[in-house]
Every structure is written in C-alpha cells, then in structure tokens.
Amino acid sequence: MTWYTEQWSNECNFSIKYEKELHSEKSPFQQIDFYQGKEFGTFFTLDRLMMVNEKDEFIYHDMIVHPAFATNPNIKKVLIIGGGDGGTAREVLRYPSVEEVVMVEIDERVFRLCQEYLPVTAKGVEEDKRMELRFEDGLAYVKNAPDASFDLILVDSTDPISVGEGLFTTAFYQECYRVLNKDGILINQHESPYFAEYAENMRKARKKIKAIFPITNVYQYHMPTYPSGHWLFGFASKTFDPVKDIRVEDWKSFGLKTKYYNTDLHVGAFQLPSYVKEALETD
Ligand code: SAM
C-alpha cells in the first residue's frame, strides 16, 4: 500500500492511496501509469497527472458531451480530439442520431492500455460501426480536414504542455472554426480557475477562442481529482447560445440516464463565480 502524489501547485500536493501499480511505460509521447486503489478504483496518469479514474470519470464525460447535444440535438458528425480513454466517445455513441464519430488520439498506447485496464470508458468504443479511430496529431488532422465537415468538435486533451500544447493555439482554434459547419459547436478542455498556472492557461485559451468564434462561453463542473476540483469546459459556436437556445424537451426525448448532467444543471453550469468572470475578462 502506497501513495500516488501529484503536485497541484508549488505549495499544494494531492495524494491517493493505491494498492497496486498495474502498468508503467514510456510511450513515444508520454509517461503512462495505471494504478488500482480503493477510493477511486483504477486510475491512470499521463506524465504524472491524473487523467481518468473509475469513480469520477462520469462527471467529466457527461459534461464534455451532453451540453452540446442539449443545445443542438441534430448533431450527426462528431470529431473527438484526444480522448484516448474512450469515455467521451462512449457518451457520444449513446445518441442513436449520431452517424459518424472520428476520434483522433495521438497516442495509441493510451487507447490500448485503457482497453485492457479501464473497460468502464474504453469498452465497446472500437466495435461501434460509426467510429473511425485515428492515431495521429489532432492539430495535423484538423489542418487537412475539409471545410464545414463536422457538427461538433470535442477537444478532450491533456494540459497545454508537451503533446497537448498545439491544441491550445490560435492556429488550432481557427482550423476548428473552418471544419465546423454553420451550426457547429466546439467544446474544449478549458483548464481551471483556481491555481495560478491553470488559471493562466484558462485565460489564454478564452482570449484566443473569443477572437475567432462569435459566441463563446465557459462552463464549470466539479472534478474531485483534478487540481482544486473546480474545472471548466469552453463552449464556442457559430450559431447557438448554450443557455438561451437549450432544447430541454428535445434532449429529454433522447431518454438518456445521466448520473451528473441534467438540463437544470446545464443552465447553472454557465453561471460563473465573480472571480472567474473577472479573470476571463482581463486581457
Ligand atoms: N480527461 C482528461 C483530462 O482533462 O485530464 C483528458 C484525458 S484524455 C486521456 C487526453 C488525451 O489527449 C491523451 O490520451 C493524449 O494522448 C491526447 N492528446 C494530447 N495531445 C494530443 C494531440 N495533439 N492530438 C491528439 N491527441 C492528443
């Protein structure tokens, strides 16, 4: 029995007790480690940062996927960038109306190891006939994708360091704008407002996206194992306002049971604390 410890800031660490280290390897892209513990079940880290665990993954995966579908229930073509654990694809594939999902994950080892150790997110994703799995850089993929070819882009990425850096650039957001159709929505992992380093990432991402998309918002969710527990997704669109345009009855008619997301929470999630609003508005 020992502890996995992650640095949340220069002055603050977070630790989880684990019973077993299940796997450890250095892929061509990053350090990958899988652990098994009692509180959070199986979890894995990339470059020593928590990615996904069995206990709270439902929060992240509900919130990255369902707000977009409740805003535009006619989404048919979805691009997922990153998301190698499969949890985002799993939630998207619950919509029978979705016709095609392209998932572009840079590191095939993340996907293969999650199939082995984390079936809660990975199981069944590869087998779904609507899925196209590609193991390549998401930035390179969007550069070559045709104009207006997706209804929804979900950026399920690591932080803006190492391989994830390109997914937080103006060039990437511009390509996303181009490959989205006129009703297109972009949802992206938008870091956290609390600890300084993450708050700076949040601010920079917001500024870049706001310069490109006519409608941009940020929404929050509670993620116990990410630094500070307070995390954000960005919502950017060419047409839809996620609060004014929410289609509550249409979303309910999908009949999906969700453990975290509901349409009341959807509206509330876009109402941010004052210090977060201020930070997002500061240049
Ligand atoms: N839920 C997690 C979080 O916010 O911490 C994200 C988990 S998901 C496993 C992140 C994935 O993004 C990783 O598997 C990583 O390999 C992938 N990724 C990072 N940069 C990428 C890039 N440029 N193109 C495609 N995938 C990328």
Explain what the structure shows.
- The chain has 2 domains: 2-53, Spermidine synthase, tetramerisation domain (Spermidine Synthase, Chain: A, domain 2, Roll); 57-281, Rossmann fold.
- Strands 9-8-7-10-11-13-12 form a 7-stranded mixed sheet, sandwiched between helices.
- The protein has 283 residues and is α/β, with parallel strands linked by helices.
- It is globular, with a radius of gyration of 18 Å.
- β10 (150-156), α6 and β11 form a beta-alpha-beta unit.
- The protein is built from 10 helices and 13 strands.
- It binds S-adenosylmethionine (SAM).
- S-adenosylmethionine binds at residues 46, 51-52, 60, 81-85, 104-107, 110, 137-139, 156-158, 163-164, 166-167, 189.
- GO terms for molecular function: spermidine synthase activity.
- Catalyzes the irreversible transfer of a propylamine group from the amino donor S-adenosylmethioninamine (decarboxy-AdoMet) to putrescine (1,4-diaminobutane) to yield spermidine.
- Pathway: Amine and polyamine biosynthesis; spermidine biosynthesis; spermidine from putrescine: step 1/1.
- Spermidine binds at residues 61, 85, 156-159.
